[in-house]
Amino acid sequence: MRTLALPLLPLSAAVAGPEWDDDRNPRTGDPLEVVFKPWYCPRCVEEERLPPQEKHLTMMRMDVRKLAEHLDLAKKWIVIETPHYRILSTIEGSKVKFKHSPYARADLERLKEIFPKLAIGRDVAILDEHERAHLYHIRLERLYAHFAALTDNKVPMLGMEAPYEVYLLGDYAEYHKLADDFLGRGQKMPGIQHHSKEKPNFNCFLTSEQQVAQTKGKGDELFSNWTMHNVAHNLVDGHGNYYRETWGWLEEGLAHYYERRENERYNTFCWTEGKPPAEFLKPDWESTIYNMVRRGKDPPLSNWCEKLQPGELTGAENGVSWSIVKWLVETEPIRFTKMLQKLDDYENKPNSEACIQFAFGCSPTVLHQRWREYVLEKYKK
After folding, report:
1. pLDDT tens-digit profile of 90-110?
2. Is the same domain home to 258 and 228?
3. Is residue 367 part of a domain?
């Protein structure tokens, strides 16, 4: 009997397999280029992960050190400037399991470029607060890279004038004080998206892991879905510098699309959507959508495509928004981008129907029918 000689794999590959899932460019299908360097982090400088340097970072339009003092951050806070974000974090360390996201292993391998001694087990990594803050640095840059590739947007910050600001706060008191003192709208909800139009134009997302745990559930996997959903809102709004309204179906559909790419189990419904729709509380949204379409219960896109606020959408319309966006992104990414770019025609201010006609050469009614045919073919189990 002839014996085949198999090539020897590195120990890490033998344990985890020679390859793992990584994100893909939505327009080409090639591996997604995630640019998470260079970065600046005072803690990294202290730990000699970066050469000696000092930068004066501003967040909420003030020196971040004064901001931390104003917020009376009791913990040792972490601030990171990445190519497209400024992140202030007081969240604690956590376990990160491979099963929680198809991109978990690739994200952790990137994290090892910052923390070479990071131990990655067979299916889990245990991160301290510094490592976890940088994991979000990498996750958010991956989100940015995917959206920028999808929209073919090569403009710095997608058109914004300053980096996107993300506040990952551990305690609710920190979050509430930040919202009260700087945004003037503290609330019981665990997250706020905010846009400031004064120069330099920027937008931000604030959240409290403590409040997320109390209202939605504990665990990094759930907090990650929550964060990606909300920051996706910021990126959609930041595209073209924010000086226009985005239709509710497009913005909320994209937010759900990016959240569910991380994990379909931990669905996020932000406060602007109102009460979470009962029909979409379970992870299997495709079966719900399929049954709606099969029974003719799907609300026609033409009836609600002009609604501007996510809160105006019904539960069924929110779910259909996700499915339509996912279908367009994964099958018509170039036309999808053309539609979004038409939205930034400030001179003519086209509505949703005009943008759909411009990109797809059809009315919302015809687009909806094409989507229905796709659902009946692809979602059937």
Report:
1. 999 999 999 999 999 999 999
2. no
3. yes
